[in-house]
């Protein structure tokens, strides 16, 4: 029999070939498992892993007592893969719903009906979503079923175990108190994009950092159970605390809305400020926007007008001129001034008092009580314009406040060397200059606080999830007038509240009140003045131990005579609400009148 063994040379050659192939396999295996493992794994993961953003939660906005003013609700979008509904002839198998044993066959029609029972859609509506998507693109892998379902609906949908149904969370801003402080909080668009107010100005604090996760899916696009891996944790946003008291702000809004409506005025503002700290405890405006229903509000009233809409303050500004005269030693409350009803200090410059009268023998205190434009200008003539300008700026007019809003107007104050002759007189009684109502409150805060103006505060702090607290810089306190001058001015302003026409309108039993009225013409936008007025009252209470300032302004009522009544009523009601809210004790001591006439 013939031997089957190969010649020795051929056997050697075969062994070499086998050995060479083995070496190649070893090299390739080493490359796959060691050298190129990371790259190959990443490539494979990229082909099967689906990245998903983990949205961070936007921080809350709270009031001084931590009552929530704005928060974030987590909602969920329901989506499906149209092309995958066609797999297996439009049916799939799942474990029996409710934890039963075994699997059941589910058709698309049955799945559509189950989904619709939870989302409020009909099976036909969901089928139409699928059909329309596939008609536009036979390989369509995405279509929305519905958006913004809540957690209960989400969990019910997940229990259906429908393989081509997926979910994505998103956050939606909610404002549990409606229009309360809506003018301050602001509002956001879809996706929590801030549009105005604190939502916009404090966005850096409120916004967190989104995280990332991945899940793997099968060849047909179905997510694989247990494959979710978090690659980057989400970091939630911080909470912003405001100085306002939610309930007091609500009361202030009710007060100013009622007064504006009662006298058919165009608008009204009401601000309450803490004398010692400058904290704004209420900032109310008529028709405040409801952040839950922005489109339902007047577009002209969606911003915080108390910060961005300055107006000529009128006679409330006389307190600045009087304080400057006293602080300069140029007058005191008993300084005498024979005061006519009209005055023409130089050719082409003429003005008068609101009520016609002959020559009156008034003191500086009497001029303030009777709110005489002529009297304050005649005494103000003792002081040069530059000096008055310096006092006005120390009282905070002409520079923007930094309370924490996106925009805060500076008011209008031209340099003294740009005042024309008429303006140089008019500014002494609050015309030819403008301020926001927050700035006006700051004037009276300074007088009530021993002459030191503390910049107004709306945003108190930002607290991060780790407990880190940061406080914004609102500016440095300014000594506007001396403590002695401030004490004297408090006597004058208490005299105004007790001796002028307002005494029966602003008095509160048991509490001493100090303050000043204001009735101001406003620009008509065409180089002249309107025929109606903005009426204001700026008050301090209690006068013997100043705790709070409240300023109310009511603009252009149908009957101009009603503006002052509305403003004083708003002040009194706001003061009473503040006394109740902060449990302010009654006054001690008694009012000591100053001479009005000589």
UniProtKB/TrEMBL annotation:
Signal peptide: none annotated. It is found in: Membrane. Residues 288-309 are annotated as: Disordered. Residues 268-573 form the Penicillin-binding protein transpeptidase domain. SUPFAM superfamilies: beta-lactamase/transpeptidase-like, Penicillin binding protein dimerisation domain. One of its GO terms (biological process) is cell wall organization. The keyword Membrane applies. One of its GO terms (cellular component) is plasma membrane. It comes from the Bacteria. The keyword Membrane applies. Keywords: Membrane. GO terms for molecular function: penicillin binding. Its main location: membrane. Pfam families: Transpeptidase. InterPro entries: Beta-lactam/transpept, Beta-lactam/transpept-like, PBP_dimer_sf, PCN-bd_Tpept. This is Penicillin-binding protein 2. It comes from Leucobacter tardus. The lineage of its organism: Bacteria, Bacillati, Actinomycetota, Actinomycetes, Micrococcales.
